[in-house]
Amino acid sequence: MIMPSCSLLHLADEDDDRVFEMGDYEGPIARWCSGCGDHSVLTAAQRLMADKQLKPETTVFVSGIGCSSRFPHYMNTYGFHGIHGRALPVATGVKLSRPELDVFAVMGDGDCVSIGAGHWIHATRYNLDMVALLLDNNIYGLTKKQTSPTTPRGYKSNTQPRGSYLLPMNPLEATLGVTNASFVAQTAEWIPAHLFATLKAAYEHRGFAFVRVLQRCPHFMPDLFTDAVKTPDMIEILDHPEGIRAAGIEKIYKNTTRHDPADLNRARELAEDMSAIRLGLFFRDESRPRYEETRALQKRTAREKMDLLNEDFDRYAV
Amino acid sequence: MKLETAGASALAEKEMSVHTVSDISVEVVSDSGEGAQKCGTIFGSVSAKMGNGVWTVEIIPAEVEPPPRNPAGASGIRIRLGDKEVTNWGDETNVIVAFNEQALLGRHDLNALADDAVILLENMWATHPDPAVRKEWEDAMERLSHRSYRIIEVPMEEQCLTVVDNARKGKNMFALGLLTWLFDRDLERTKEQIAFAFRTKKPIITENNIKLLELGYSWAEENLDVRYVVPGMEAAGPMVVMNGNEAIALGAVAAGLDLAAMYPITPATSVSHKLGEIFEKYGGVLHQAEDEIAAAGVAIGASYAGKCTFTITSGPGMALKTEFLGLAVMTEIPLVLVNVQRGGPSTGLPTKVEQSDLLAATYGQPGDAPHVVMAPATIGECFDIMTTARRIAEALRTVVIVLSDANLATGVAPFPRPELSPEWQAGPPDQRPIPAGAKPYDWDPETGLSRRFIPGQAGGEHTLTGLAHDERSKVAYDSDTVQRSMTMRSRKLAVFQSTLLPPEINGDPEGGDLLIVGWGSTKGAIEEAVGRARKEGLSVSSTHLTFLSPLQPGLKEIFGRFEKVMTVEINYSDIVGDPYITPENRRYGQLAMMLRAQTLVDVDCWTRVLGEPLRPGKILQAIRQHMPGGEA
Predict the structure, then answer these.
(1) Which of A42, A147, B485, B632 makes an SS bond possible with B625, Cβ 3.0 to 4.6 Å?
(2) Could you give the CA distance from residue A267 to residue A239 in angstroms, rounded to a whole number?
(3) Out of A10, A96, A309, whose CB is closest to B432?
(4) Which tens digit of pLDDT belongs to each residue from B211-246?
(5) pLDDT tens by residue, B430-445
């Protein structure tokens, strides 16, 4: 049983015959740099919405702060551009109050992996039914090139001009280590078919679907995936009938590994091994308990509540 | 000091003295885990049921189980009884039951005991096998002997062992028996209250507890020669008795708040204990978040998507939530934040009262973030304030901070049972489509008020942002928009302030020599002190503010009727005359600072941070000293 939504007045009637096209989800022209990976994710999200015929008014994109967190502004849906690192708590609140809404949390690597890392771990564990997108370009862009937790070691930035001191954090490995993780996938912005297929699988997942999108930042991290873009064999596609299959990419991306997304141990090994860039579904388990199902709540009218409250007051009666 | 050994006076020989009193304070102190609070709570509840005014305050060490027999670790409860309504914890304790002499010393050291206090003291320590313990007992007796206490030794352990194997788990009920006899409480009602208090435990627990109660009662009957009668009142109507945190939890339900997000923090947590117990049957969600920040975020996200929600915290937690509070103000999302204040700064005094978060609550958010700050003054108001706060938050589309404190949180007192109305409940969010052309912030240029769009409303799609934005919620950094949007968010507060009434005057509304201004939980103690001062002939009145930001109207005019105005608060202020402290560099109490800024009246302050509620007697002293032309 899923927690009920809060009571609502004047719900739209059921025979809604609107048909949505991609353009219906488009907001104003995105103000990201040309060549920024965010553009591809925006298009893929709009395509997903059209594919699923999601209603703009019952879809909420929640973001934090950073280049990628401007995302909701460019969608014609409800959006919540909040504060740095806190997209997931806000998204959690939206979903707890209104489980029927489609909720997407869009975060950068600073948002998710650094300042909001605590929320990332716990949102994974709560396993609310939503899509969490980590748009990971391995650098802080909006604030002009500071080291992020995923910045490659030795990469020079304005805060670590002699090169990043630490090993980069591996968000897949971390997410797969969290109790109750239920969907972990990785895709890349420069392979639109794979990106779309991944978003679609994430949306269809019942639970917290964590997707890391590998992204280029043309300004501050221009060469990160240059070789990978030019040399498709550097990409290893995780393939399985239960996994994510992007139609039409087989001819270019021939380097595949068979991986059953039910196999958590193997998923962890694949995530930990950095010798290849792996795209696909690392892990999925729809049987993991979802937070919405933890409470058997009953909707109460105002009068019922007051009757119950009177009973509670009886216990304090003098 | 008179030291009396147990059983020295047999019933036949003893000469009973019965005192009829209109006001008396009782304490039960022990090591943590010995159940002194349970004993006191039951005693207080029975007394309330017998028509007495009651105020109980828990004495709680910061640790769960600090080392035993340690003055700083004293755990217990004070119960003040009266033949009229009791509004505060009073001054000194007249009767105390102590489970060991070290806990007693802890109270003695804090000057909590009246000079002629009657002390019922467990005497097993006097003959303890460990010589170190015996030495501690002797030293304690020596220290206590400098006061006129009457110490009556009671063989609690020995007596309790006749009923239970472990007297640690029973002494409190024996003590309850002592008090029940001493104050002539209804034994049957006390038994009922015990059965209620232990209703979730095995029946044998209740049975043994009742045996221990009776044992204590008959021991007292045989051995004690003093009794107190506190006449009861006829209740004007049905009353309920609870603590302030329970009242907040029930108030939240009454207000129709359906989601609370919190992270455990003393002394706020017991609100969520109550909610945890009852909220789900109302369809409510209590979300224990991973941290304070997330709790604010979840509450804000839920409010944004539906009905107004709330979060519960204490000072350090409110500090963590500040960025989110600014976001809620900026995006005009209704939110109620309850801050049950404790002593600060930093971790401070987690279990003790202070009123030191007023400035942080009002001004603590980065940027200009106008919002409402209000404070309940009584336990009954803790209940009412939740509906008021929720309504204001929704009407103004902003944050309402409710400042309770540890005194209200753990204080237990009866108040008139509210007559519940379903109209207090928040209505369901409207899901009708948004008319073409309507904007997410359609600020009324006169009032700054606007209608909120809620996800699900077709045609209302927009993105809320914490960035500067215009009426359409579009990011806008141009000068006109920044100035206008700030004006609109601020104007709402002025509109709200125009609907408030001036505060009432306790004493003489015409004016006089001194006006005391207070806020929050100090109301009862201030009014008691003012009442006593007026009986002494002093021309003093008081007023108590429920709204701290915006301030209630008419203050400057009211202040003008008095020769001098002084706040009384439980926060820090410098004392002129202390080294380096001058009228120019003096740091004032927090309300005093706000009143001075807002009214340009030279408001003085008397504030103390003693880690305990203000005693009316101390306020009275301060009044005497601060009368215009007085010593200070």
Answers:
(1) B632
(2) 12
(3) A10
(4) 999 999 999 999 999 999 999 998 789 999 999 999
(5) 999 999 999 999 999 9
DSSP B349-380: BTTS-----HHHHHH-SSS----EEE---SHH
* B457 vs A57, A83, A92: nearest CB: A57
Question: What average pLDDT does range B173-190 have in this prediction?
Answer: 96
Mean pLDDT of A44-58: 98
B4 versus B413: which is more confidently predicted? B413
Distance CA B299, CA B262 (A): 9
Least confident of A2-11, A237-246, B139-148, B320-329: A2-11
Residues B291 and B262: their CA atoms lie apart, in Å, by 8
Q: Is there a contact between A182 and A289 (Cβ–Cβ < 8 Å)? A: no
- Work out the minimum CA distance from B531 to partner chain A, whole angstroms: 27
B43-64 tens-digit pLDDT? 998 999 899 999 998 888 777 8
Q: Cβ separation of B241 and A300 shorter than 8 Å?
A: no
Residue A25 has pLDDT above 90, yes or no: yes
**Residue range B461-478: average pLDDT?**
97
Taking the Cβ of residue A6 and every Cβ of chain B, the question of whether any pair is shorter than 8 Å is answered with yes
pLDDT on residue B5 = 58
Residues in chain B with CB shorter than 8 Å from the CB of A318 are 45, 48-49, 235, 238-241, 414
Which of B81, B200, B298 is the best substitution to test chain A (most A C-beta atoms within 10 A)?
A: B298
Query: What domains lie within chain B, and their CATH numbers?
Result: 2-229 (3.40.920.10), 240-418 (3.40.50.970), 432-499 (no CATH), 505-626 (3.40.50.920)
For the stretch B533-545, pLDDT in tens is 999 999 999 999 9
When CB atoms are compared, the residue of B254, B429, B464 closest to A81 is B464
Distances (CA, A) of B209 to B75, B167, B191, B217: 20, 11, 9, 12
List of domains in chain A: 22-291 (3.40.50.970)
Q: Give the model confidence (pLDDT) of B395-427 as tens digits.
A: 999 999 999 999 999 898 999 999 999 999 988
Whether A7 contacts B428, CB under 8 Å: yes
d(CA A59, CA B457): 11
Instruction: Give contacts of A94 with chain B, Cβ < 8 Å.
Output: 301-302, 304-305, 455
The 10 Å Cβ neighbour count of residue A266 is: 16
**Residues from chain A contacting residue B425 (CB–CB below 8 Å):** 302, 305-306
DSSP one-letter code for B440: T
Which chain A residues are closer than 8 Å to B284 by Cβ? 297
In the block, which residue shows the tokens 């938050």?
B393
Place of tokens 């005192």: B19
pLDDT tens by residue, B485-514? 999 999 999 999 999 999 999 999 999 999
Q: Do B297 and A86 touch (CB under 8 A)?
A: yes
A2 touches chain B (CB under 8 A): no
d(CA B257, CA B244): 17
- Torsion sign (Cα): B221, B222, B223, B226: positive
Rounded (10°) CA dihedral A20, A22, A27, A28 = -140
Instruction: For chain B, give the number of residues.
Output: 632
Kindly list the residues from chain B whose CB atom is less than 8 angstroms away from the CB atom of residue A89: 289, 293-298, 301
Distances in whole angstroms, Cα of residue A239 to Cα of each of A24, A179, A194, A280, B256: 33, 25, 12, 7, 50
Nearest to B28 by CA among B63, B65, B72, B74: B74
pLDDT of residue A314 exceeding 60: yes
Each residue's pLDDT tens digit, A78-92: 999 999 999 999 999
pLDDT category at B12 given cuts 50, 70, 90 is very low
Query: B299 contacts in A (CB within 8 Å)?
Result: 93
